[in-house]
Design brief:
6% of the residues lie in helices and 22% in strands. It has one helix and three strands. By secondary structure, it is mainly beta. The longest helix has 5 residues. It is globular and about 35 Å long. The chain has a domain of 38 residues. Strand 1 and strand 2 form a beta hairpin.
């Protein structure tokens, strides 16, 4: 349990410039059983296989309170697999 990264994004995400400052980003999270995949703008940032510790829990949208920033979310969809 607890809060935090499932797994911090890989260097591959930075290398492929998955984050684009000033532009909308697409984040796709697929969780089925113990398999979790996170994609940012189509680039796999995290892939966990058979992770037994995260079978259920909450989905949170985060804004770091210690930093001044503007965050917007749009088109949030949840789909059963």
């Amino acid at each position: 349990g607890g809060r935090g990264w499932v797994h911090q994004p890989t260097a591959e995400v930075a290398k492929k410039r998955a984050y684009k400052k000033g532009e909308w980003s697409d984040l796709e999270l697929t969780a089925k059983g113990g398999d979790i995949t996170v994609k940012i703008n189509g680039v796999v940032s995290t892939k966990l296989t058979n992770d037994k510790s995260r079978k259920e829990g909450h989905i949170g949208l985060q804004l770091h309170g210690s930093q001044v920033m503007h965050v917007e979310y749009k088109d949030i969809q949840l789909k059963p697999l």
